Automatic annotation (TrEMBL):
It holds the Pfam family DA1-like. Residues 9-22 have a biased composition (Polar residues). Gene3D superfamilies: Cysteine Rich Protein. Residues 24-35 have a biased composition (Basic and acidic residues). Residues 112-172 form the LIM zinc-binding domain. PANTHER family: PROTEIN DA1-RELATED 1, PROTEIN DA1-RELATED 2. Transmembrane segments: none annotated. Residues 9-39, 406-426 are annotated as: Disordered. PROSITE patterns: LIM_DOMAIN_1, LIM_DOMAIN_2, UIM. Residues 406-422 have a biased composition (Low complexity). One of its GO terms (molecular function) is metal ion binding. This is LIM zinc-binding domain-containing protein.
Length: 481
């Protein structure tokens, strides 16, 4: 049977060479052996043909499996090369402090050292970022210490950070909404800041109706509610703490400022009524004055005409809004050049006092026979007196250096004894800063009458003194230079 074996091996060899070109093994053509087959009988030839056919069929099936296995290996190798090339690519450029790393796991194929724990990464997932490789659990935020599992992270000082953690120490937050102030397209951070309080806030809050305190001008934070006045004004809780709400409550402060003027040798002999009023009553009284050069939203008024004014007689209850306010009419009778001084209610003591000191200077000029003055001169010297009174209150502690006897006078007055909350006493740190803010407002006022007039008047008083400046104004109707 050796010859038969040689024929089968030959058939096998021809089949392995030809199967690459064949898909199903059908319709093949074989070269027949010449002499041996001719000598066999028909029965033997039939058996031989059957053996050769079976052999060819088995070898064909084996060849198919070999092709399929080779094809699968080639696909796996191509996928592995694609993954490796994607890992070797440089990271995309970072914008807005961000870095990006692949979100899919990568399997190690060689010796790698983790930049976090310095241990070898043998098998399993690892991250390639910041020119190093890391165990996923070793790639941690330098601020909070927790692993970074986000698709983006920030890099600062060669350390990785969560984007939120990296913003915390460097990116400013809005003092109104407590959110990070938005970054513009160019990567710049634009925000607004109050020139005195340094309150930072998003520019959008200037357009979205966020209210401001009518006293200190700070914006209302989202988690803090301001007091609402009936006329639409808002008052923050710090300013509300020293706010003066009715006419009786204001009388001790009135007496203190009269003493302040007397300490400057500018005593007012006439008893001028002082009334706290709502904004509507103040505006109506302002319209009744002949010589009026006050601002549209003035907070104080020195009246010279006879008229009836609605004044606040009883301190209202305070909840979220002003409640149970008692208002009564007050008839002004002209007994001298000044019929009354009106002050807007619901303002802090230091602001109420500075307005009162300003209006009392208007009264003093009229009662002392000064001629009609231009707005910059008259408003300017009145602002100088308001500024001086604020100085005395801020730096004198619990009482004024100029009017040292006002405390005992206030405590013995009927108004003070009937209302223990006269707002007189040691200044809190906020109230001292509030007083400095009111001085800052006077000093930086851009208006020609109140702002420029104050700066010219204050310069004259510092150079020549108050008395010489007043004498010069009487004679020339102008400030000395």
């Amino acid at each position: 049977m050796d010859w038969l074996t040689n024929i089968l091996n030959g058939a096998s060899h021809e089949s392995s060479q030809g199967q690459y070109h064949s898909t199903c093994g059908e319709d093949r053509i074989w070269d027949e052996p010449s002499s041996p087959r001719d000598t066999l009988s028909d029965y033997e030839n039939e058996d031989l043909d059957l053996a050769i056919a079976k052999s060819l069929e088995e070898e064909d099936q084996k060849g198919k499996k070999v092709i399929e296995n080779i094809s699968q290996v080639e696909e796996d190798e191509q996928l592995a090369r694609a993954l490796q090339e994607s890992l070797n690519m440089q990271s995309p450029p970072r914008y807005d402090f961000g870095s990006i790393f692949p979100s899919f796991p990568v399997f190690s194929s060689g010796n790698r050292i983790c930049a976090g724990c310095n241990a070898e990464i043998v098998n399993g997932e690892f991250l390639r970022c910041m020119d190093a490789v890391w165990h996923p659990e070793c790639f941690r935020c330098h601020a909070c210490g927790l692993p970074i599992s986000d698709h983006e992270f920030s890099e600062s000082g060669n350390h990785p950070y969560h984007k939120s953690c990296d913003k915390e120490p460097y990116h400013p937050k809005c003092d109104v909404c407590s959110n990070f102030i938005p970054t513009k397209a160019a990567g710049l951070i634009e925000y607004r800041a109050h020139p005195f309080w340094s309150q930072k806030y998003c520019p959008s809050h200037e357009r979205d109706g966020t209210p401001r305190c009518c006293s200190c001008e700070r914006m209302e934070a989202r988690d803090i509610k301001f007091l609402s006045h009936d006329d639409g004004r808002k008052l923050c809780l710090e300013c509300l703490d020293s706010a003066i709400m009715d006419t009786n409550e204001c009388q001790p402060l009135y007496l203190e400022i009269r003493d302040f003027y007397e300490g400057l040798n500018m005593k007012l002999e006439q008893q001028i009524p002082l009334l706290l009023v709502e904004r509507q009553a103040l505006n109506e009284a302002m319209e009744g004055e002949k010589n009026n050069h006050h601002l549209p939203e003035t907070r104080g008024l020195c009246l010279s005409e006879e008229q009836t004014v609605s004044t606040i007689r009883r301190r209202p209850r305070i909840g979220g809004r002003i409640l149970d306010m008692i208002i009564e009419p007050y008839r002004l009778i002209r007994q001298c050049e000044v019929t009354a001084i009106l002050i807007l209610y619901g303002l802090p003591r230091l602001l109420t006092g500075s307005i009162l000191a300003h209006e009392m200077m208007h009264a003093w000029l009229r009662l002392k026979g000064y001629p009609n003055l231009s707005p910059p001169v008259e408003e300017g010297i009145c602002q100088v007196l308001a500024h001086m009174w604020l100085d005395s209150e801020i730096y004198a502690g619990s009482s004024s250096d100029v009017a040292s006897s006002s405390s005992s006078l206030s405590s013995s007055s009927p108004a003070s004894s009937s209302n223990p909350s006269s707002k007189k006493g040691a200044r809190s740190q906020f109230e001292k800063k509030l007083g400095k803010f009111f001085k800052h407002q006077i000093e930086s006022d851009p208006s020609p009458a109140y702002g420029e007039g104050f700066r010219l008047g204050n310069q004259a008083v510092l150079k020549y003194g108050l008395r010489s400046t007043l004498d010069h104004i009487r004679m020339t109707r102008n400030f000395p230079y």
